[in-house]
Structure formats: structure tokens, C-alpha cells
Amino acid sequence: MPHYERILITGAAGRLGSELRKGLAPLTKTVRLAGRTPFGELAPHEEEAVFDLADMDATIAATEGCDAIVHFGGAALESPWQAVLDSNIRGSYHIYEGARKHGVRRVIYASSVHAIGFHGIEDHIGVDAPVRPDSLYGVSKNFVESLSRLYWDKFGIESVCLRIFSSFPEPKDRRMLWSYLSFADCVRLVEASLTAPWVGHTISFGLSDNKVKTVDNSGADHLGYIPRDSSEPFRAAVEANTPTPDPKSPSVKYLGGWFCELGHPDDPK
């Protein structure tokens, strides 16, 4: 029996959204796929909503008839301020306003490690550590985490904010040996967030069961997420094919990696 009548997935054409499009199908009678361009052929249980998150009316309209939202849309990397403002900040406000106006009971939000990127790797922080963004992109994630807290406390909309680290088909470098989140574990994490009996306002780190543990995710144990994958099968190849980084480099010292070394995105290149 599906848990939901209709789930809206924003960013459904993206790297992770495409995986969620397939992986979340058993949880709902209908998946509404949201993106800026048409999706082409749809499965019988799928429907599409084509709009830009910066368009408030269109975004709110896309939330109508949904009882859960998986919000993975927006700028995916550090971007010029205007892009971050329109897609990540304004766009997420539009999503939560749609949820409030149309009675959506739960939102799963793709936050990021970059919300806490300037914490040191050796600090072993928990989910309740102070925010320390490493970029304007990270600031936008902090904004939406705070926004979702407001909408829980004031309007009773549950949210799970997933601070995803590095989710790719396989680890690309030595940092990802500890920051890796497999696609399958990403789907498991979102599924757990959607099916946990109660989440209130929860922040969770998004990681697979990697050998090196850099953070403490016990504050999100109530989600029931159990990762099944690990970066270990890739370790030998990664270590053989990528250079050993300078241990004094900010990209090595901090959770945010190379984002910590970026300049302001609006500065002349």
C-alpha cells in the first residue's frame, strides 16, 4: 500500500532527482516530476509540471494535490548571487508557501554539507552543530533549513533536511572515501525520511557506511536510515589514481572540501 497519494519531486531531471524518480515510485500512487523543461515519455504513474522555481505562482500551483514534496531542485553548486537567490532561496520559499497553502504534510529537502562546510573534519560534529557555510550556496542551504524550522514550529509542516555530502556513481577522489553517498543509499535515506512515523524538524547527514566516520549522525537515528553501501570497494583504485593532497590545504582540513577555497562567485574571473 503506497504511503502517499502524490509526491512532488523538484529537480527530477537532475543527477539525484533521476534516481529518486525511479526509487520512490513504490511509495506513492502518483509521482509529479518538476523541472524547467519537459520530461518526454512518462510512466503510467508519472505526471509532469514544467516551471521555474523563481516563478512563485507556478511553483505554488505545482504543489497542489500533493501530500509530500521531495525538494531537490535549484542551483546545484556555487553560483552567482542572483542565481542562488532566485533558485535556492526564493524558489524554496515558494515551495514552502505551496506546502502551507495546499496542506502538504511533509517536505524532504536536499540540504548540503556546504551548510556546515567550515567545520573541521576532526571536529566530529553532530547534526546540532552551529552552521558554518562555506559558500553562498551553503548560505542558501542554511536559509532553507531555518525556513523549514519556521514552517514546522508555526504551521506544523514536517521537514527532513538532508545534508548530502558527495553523491555520485562512485567516489572520484580521496575526500569521497569518507564523504561518499551512493545513489542507492540516497534513495534509502529519502525513503526513510518519507516513511518514518514522525520527523518533526530533522537534520540528517547524507552518507553511506564509509569506513572513516567524520560526523555523528545519531541525532537522526529516528529516521531509521540504514546505509548498505560503502566507499571501501573503490579505495584501492582511488588511492592509486589520485594524488595525496596537502594536509594543510583548506580542502583537506574542512568538511566542505574545495568549496572552502572558492572566491566570491561574482568577482571577475
UniProtKB/TrEMBL annotation:
TM segment ranges: none
SUPFAM superfamilies, sorted: NAD(P)-binding Rossmann-fold domains (SSF51735)
Name assigned to this protein: NAD-dependent dehydratase
Family: Belongs to the NAD(P)-dependent epimerase/dehydratase family.
Keywords: NAD, Oxidoreductase
Record-annotated NAD-dependent epimerase/dehydratase domain positions: 7-168
Lineage of producing organism: Bacteria, Pseudomonadati, Pseudomonadota, Alphaproteobacteria, Rhodospirillales
CDD domains named among the record's database cross-references: SDR_e
Signal peptide: none
GO molecular function: oxidoreductase activity
Organism: Aliidongia dinghuensis
